[in-house]
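Dear support,

We are seeing what looks like truncated structure output for some complexes. This example has two components. We would appreciate it if you could run it in full and send us the complete token output so we can diff it against ours.
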Amino acid sequence: MSLAAHVVVRRGSLELDVQLAVADGEVLAVLGPNGAGKSTVLRVLAGLLPPDGGRVVVDGDQVWDSPEDHRPAHERSLGMVFQDHLLFPHLSVTDNVAFGLRTRGVRRADARTTAGDWLARVGLTGLGDRRPGQLSGGQAQRAALARALVGEPRVLLLDEPLSALDARTRLTVRAELHRHLTDYAGSAVLVTHDPVDAMALATRVVVVEDGRVVQAGTPAEVARRPRTDYVARLVGLVLLAGTAAGTTVELDGGGTVAVAAEAHGPVFVAVRPESVALYLSRPAGSPRNVWPLRLVTATPHGSVVRCDLTGEVALTADVTATSFAELGLAPGAEVWASVKASEVAVYPR
Amino acid sequence: MPAPLLVPALLGVAFLVLPLLGLLVRAPWSEIGPQLARPGVGEALRLSLVSATLATAVSLVLGVPLAWVLARSQLRGRSVLRALVTVPLVLPPVVGGVALFLVLGRQGILGRWLFEATGFSLPFTTAAVVIAEAFVAMPFLVISVEGALRAADARFEDAAATLGADRWTTFRRVTLPLVAPGVAAGAVLCWARALGEFGATITFAGNFPGTTQTMPLAVYLTLQREPEAAIVLSLVLLGVSLATLLLLRDRWLGRGAVT
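Here is the complete output from our reference environment:
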């Protein structure tokens, strides 16, 4: 492991206690809601905030933080990309990119040459003489990436690097960022609240809520088997907790769900809203998962209508606008909801 | 606009502007040339400009780091420090002059030591003028630069740190350029205050033509003997002050400077 960190910070209502490990060439996404302490983790890794406890160790033997020792940011081999780029407004783009080389004693001419090469790599050839204020948001974030990478740091920290960009720019910059992260040999940590960023850019994801890691895994694992409501909502699943005995799960909140795979003990049940079907009367045949529920709200969601349901089981169903119209549902209406057992994922808690 | 606000506002403007107009009206315009050419006038003007500039230089060298400490350090008792620094701002300058005299005079706490070691005594020298002016004017610079530092985004300094810059390099290459407009505005304010300094100067440095008699001192003394000459000297100071103000507005304040 090339970056191993245990970060403990106590600050007002925030009690942060997070462990991370990032191998060389790996991109770890720290995903979590606002106020979960993600950015604080990054500030500690950067050396901008001395932690109240824990350790930050690089390459197994370089101690950046420990209870006895705090190495300040400027003595760490790192690059950081901020949400709003933070390019120095009084320097040209080239001088911004060259800044990290100049502070490390590289001669001005050499630093500017290397900076020019990096500007070419991020697609900003010819813009080096501009001031940051004359760049578009996407260009500025590319320059900020070049500035962070130019010193070939051991650790690259990205703090919501795409969230200040408009939707279209975000798409292209995300693709470019993916390419640069693939080429990057060190350990990268990406903080984001956008699951798409985490899924697209990271090799592993940790989910932080209320200062704790609540889930860790590959992006695919996290997307398929969320362990908290927050993650489930991000990846578009309904999460139910219960206790399994064979192919039947007794839900904690009451009611039962039939599943296809056998399981035992405490489990999570994840349901995709588009696999939930709604009927005005009890459906014919004998599907095993049928519940009489009541519609709470219905909101248009792309090409479907998202129906939040309550009753024996709290569910969300995505139905097409056409079938929603045919059902003629209004909030408060009684409906029957059914899900095939084979469409329900079940995994241990 | 309601009359209870408008009338006092107009009176206020008149109160501030009329005396200056009076100065212009009473000015012996035909005699300005000869008056300015009189021996001593040029000397006093030169001494004023030089000592105010030196006092500003001293204030910059000491005041900018002081402002940084007030705005950025985690030092305990910073608010006490700030209060102490701003005392000269509200202190009657004459009191400042007396205090300087008691500390730096030949019999003063530090002055005695200086005199015994080098045979040099500060009071009644041009150096004393610079010290008196810096004492009175430096808080203007400190307050202005501290305000600029507080308004500047400290995250740029974080970014510099992640790029390997220690705090001194960060200060020189990032912080100072970012607050340059505030520093410049503070320096001009400080210079203007030093230029008009009277009380501390006459108390600590005395009134010796050629070495310590600055323009404000010359104006005051001339007024008692030759009012016409005092008006001319006053006009010169008014001109310099107006020029300073214009410089401030157009060059720095106009560009959204942080002060």
